[in-house]
Amino acid sequence: MAKGKKGSSGGAEGPSGDNIRLAEVGQSLFVKAAGVGVAALAVSAFLGAGENDGWSRFSHSYLVAFAWVMTICAGGIWWITIQNIVNSHWSTVIRRVGELIATNAPVLALLALPVVLPLIMGKPILYKWADSSLMTGDLAHKLGYLNTKFFSIRFVFYFGFWTWLSYYLLNKSLGQDKESKEAAAKTVVTMRRVAGPAMIVFALVVTFCSIDLIMTLEPQWFSTMFGVYYFASCVLAINSSLALSLMWLQSKGRLSASVTVHHFHDLGKMVFAFTIFWAYVGFSQFMLQWYANIPEETLWWKERFANSWGTYSWVLLFGHFVIPFFGLLSRWVKRNKKALAFWCIWQLVMIYVDMYWLVMPTVSDEVPFKLIDLTCWIGVLALFIAGIAYRAKNLDLLAKNDPRLPDSLAFENI
Amino acid sequence: MSDEHKKSSATPSEAPLHGLLAEYDTPPELLHAAKKIRDAGFTKWDTYSPFAVHGIDEAMGIKMTVLPWFTLCAGLTGLATAITLQWWTNAYDYPWIISGKPFWSIPANVPIMFELTVLLSAITTLVGMLMLNNLPLPSHPLDQIRRFARVTDDKFFLMIQASDPKFDEVDTRQLLETTHPVAIEAVKEDRVTEDRLPSGLVYGLIIVAVASVVPFALAAKARYTKSSSTRIHIIQDMDSQPKYKAQRENPFFADNRADRPAIEGTVAVGDARDDDHFYKGKVAGVWARTFPSQITLNEATMERGRQRFGIYCTPCHGQIGQGDGMVAKRADQLAQGTWVPPSNITQDNLRQQPVGELFNSITNGVRNMPAYGPQIKTEDRWAIIMYVRALQRSRSGSLNDLPPDARASLK
User: Fold this and answer.
1) Residue B312 and residue B164 in one domain
2) Which of A139, A377, B270, B331 fits a disulfide with A65 by CB distance 3.0 to 4.6 angstroms?
3) pLDDT tens digits, residue range B47-80?
4) Domain residue spans in chain A?
């Protein structure tokens, strides 16, 4: 395959003659997204204050939106790490976009503050265990883990680790762009050596982070599958987001020739595979507790099968698994941009529906959907996008010096 | 190709033409040639390469395989089989309650549905792939060509079959020459190599197929025949243990009985139940109105009674004895008409019943309530009554029972 041989103007031209800089498009996206994000969160705060319930409704809406956006970022960190571990050749043209999404970890940490700060200050708005005096009876023995001091340490570690790992991989990859052929090949090995052990830590971080932020909303309930359940959404979210991001970039004339139907086909396969994986893990979590029928485990399910939540659970099962399973089954769907975009958006919405299902039954007997849920969702997503656009606007969207790039450009899918 | 025909043919060179083989050095040359042959409208031809060549499907004009449809149908068949099988066995033919779940319990069936779907899909995909590729192929005319051996190494080939309607030995050779092959070779039909599966393999497969029916045949036989012989004891020392069980014969004793009845005129230690108040709830032949002296009326006894009540009584009578326990609720739901609802133990007639009579009801049962005497120790039965009395008192309290300040707050 042809390599970038023309005198590229400021590195903005990729190997296939593609435009690989967002530049002014990134700047305008940043301005728009940041504006929408701030406005939507201001409306959310206004609506939340109007509830007059000590910010409970606002906090829960916000947590759903945050948990949703975290699936994309944590998924991104997982995705770039696994590409390095397995020395993936096919994904090289799209890896930089993954890296740019993953390095939003510090933005994610800032977005976490409305959830985390009240908790650290000991206000039990979301988490009962923020106030140790509420943890009586059987719950008292969980205070060794569920206390604000230990949580603060964990929180710093989670986001510190994610920030470090994502920036390490991005910076190595950016450095590679300017290196000689031999040095670039060595960098690939260095990144791979770090990615392996980092993946073990990542697995622990995503498990405990999801347990801390979502599972402990009901401190009496526990599931050892919970981390995997959340992880399934992370992988689904990043593959959907990558496909959509690339489609958007191509619509703006970026990476037009480098990223082909074959790359979209593979992303589509991953969306399909993790649609099944989500159902597999979700059902495994459900079936064991359903079979054992022990009160401290079934109480969580009882809330989710009662009243309108019962219908909601069916919507989740069919909307998140059965319908997209058949929707994504065919080969042509994964190779048709419009069809794939439809299912990627569908699954991202379903991940939100799933997060809503995890969080909201703790405070409401009925499905409580309101405008504030939508504004929180838009606000958090827009700020998240603004963070990516701000970093991405002046960086190359393609790892142009990676020795695996020619393979990736010539990649063909059956 | 009949056997006689085969044997009669003398040498391979006299065999009819099978096709024309062209050899190329690189994949792009093969792709280029394939496009030409495709455009010329040939249908019976194929390309051969040491590895999968990208774009060859398109260059050869190969349509998308139908294999995915086989897989989908097999998967749905597996799913339907799993659902039917589990419904038939668990809910219809032999309904059996497992873990208190409904007879037909979908969540419990899902793992089997999943597994049969995957199993049938996978096997069908494999077998379907083999069939669509005409595999296994015991012999092929190309096996006779020496240069073709390098197809597994570094050479690329294209062959047009003589049976193709467009095939003409001269014209087709000229067409192939325009694709600039390294060489063109005529391939003759193979009259020497056996083109059937080895007979050993065929017989082996038949034996395996027949043997696999045997377990089903044995199961079917067992289902429709009766036998008077004892079952096969695989684990001998577990099935026949050197000990005597109740109601069995034992030649050691004169009366040949394994169980030893109590000797006349004796009472086992702890079996002398001579206190009617404590054991029968009666004083001088009428129901006792007081607790027997063996029971200490304190908080510990009350707590014991609360626990025992929770274990033995709440399933039917409910947490506070209103006759609304889980069993009663379920029986109401089923509405089978044979159910005598449990009493509300705080109702007036039971509140006025002497403690001795309540004790008797627990010990020996009443209406369809079974006797709990064998299950609950005597002291515990009295403790339960103490707790029942507390429940009855709590349900018949009046305003005057409250302390004055609490009374004021209700006004």
Assistant:
1) no
2) A377
3) 999 998 988 988 999 988 899 999 999 999 999 9
4) 16-408
A286 touches chain B (CB under 8 A): yes
CB of A288 less than 8 A from some CB of B: no
Closest by Cα among B265, B289, B60 to B157: B60
B52 and B177 share a domain? Answer: yes
State the CATH number of the domain containing residue B339: 1.10.760.10
Residues with Cβ within 8 Å of residue B33, at least 6 apart in sequence: B22, B24, B158, B176, B179, B181
Of B85, B87, B83, B81, which is closest to residue B104 (Cα–Cα)?
B87
Q: How many domains does chain B have?
A: 2
Domain presence at residue B244: no
pLDDT value of position A305: 94
Return the half-sphere exposure (C-beta side, CA atoms, 13 A cut-off) of residue B258: 9
DSSP for A148-203, written as a single string: HHHHHHHHHHHHHHHHHHHHHHHHHHHHHTTS-HHHHHHHHHHHHHHHHHHHHHHH
% chain A with pLDDT above 70: 97
Whether B72 and B190 share a structural domain: yes
Selected for mutation to probe chain A from B31, B58, B99 (highest A CB count within 10 Å) is B99
Task: To the nearest 10°, report the CA torsion of A344, A349, A355, A356.
Answer: -170
Query: If contacts are CB pairs under 8 Å, which of residues 225-284 in chain A contact chain B?
Result: 280, 283
Distance CA A78, CA A208 (A): 15
| pLDDT digit string, tens, across residues B238-269 | 888 888 888 889 999 999 999 988 888 898 88
Residue that has been written with the tokens 């996008």 in this structure = A385
Chain position carrying tokens 């990615």: A195
> Residue A219 — φ and ψ, nearest 5°?
-65, -15
Please report whether residue B167 resides in a domain.
yes
* pLDDT, tens digit (0-9, with 9 covering 90-100), for B301-348: 999 999 999 999 999 999 999 999 999 988 888 888 788 889 999 999
pLDDT at A7: 37
Contacts of A412 in chain B (CB under 8 A): 54-55
- Mean predicted confidence (pLDDT) in A197-202: 97
* Terminal CA-CA length for chain B: 108
The predicted pLDDT at position B13 comes to 56
CB A380 within 8 A of CB A115: no
B45-48, strands of its sheet edge to edge? B45-48, B156-161, B17-24, B183-188
Same structural domain, B125 and B24: yes
Question: Of A196, A189, A233, which Cα lies nearest the Cα of A73?
Answer: A233
Angle (CA) A106 A111 A115, round 5°: 125
End-to-end CA distance of chain A: 19
Q: Is the pLDDT of residue A227 over 60?
A: yes
Mutate to test the interface with A, among B114, B115, B118, B326 (most CBs of A within 10 A): B114
